[in-house]
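Input sequence (161 aa), recorded before submission:
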Amino acid sequence: MSLSAFVASLVIMLVGLAGTILPVLPGIVIIYFGYFLYGVLTSWRVYGAGTMVLWGAVTAATLVLDLVAPMLGARRFRSSILGMWGSLAGTLIGLILFGLPGLVAGTFVGAVVGELMARRSTLEALKCGKAALIGLLAGSLLKVVVGLIMVGAFVWRVAMH
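Predicted structure, token format:
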């Protein structure tokens, strides 16, 4: 049962790893579910509550950072509060309505519209839109790195047991 539990959990985690790149899948959450599944299937012999709490906290923090990364990127380049909230609104609306292209376009457009509403010049608004996109990319990179670490730690922990 242990080998089949490992393979099943690893397949789920690899789907989750793909989800760190594809915005339609909640990648980090899926990877965390792989940890949970392996624990249940093996009666928690390899790891227990401490590991689940640690990776649960990492999962939650990654989700929050991924959501606010465009706002932080915009803020880093002195965006107004309207530009920051515009980038968040654009990110969510774009993703929900148009998937990956909407995620990128919505982040940029939301930040630009927010800055224009704050009466910033068009050039300043475009700079903040660019900064929001940089934040989005940084958040995406963080998600991929965290996903790789989670999967690598799982394989290492199970292999060493």
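Checked by second reader. DSSP finds five helices and no strands in the chain.
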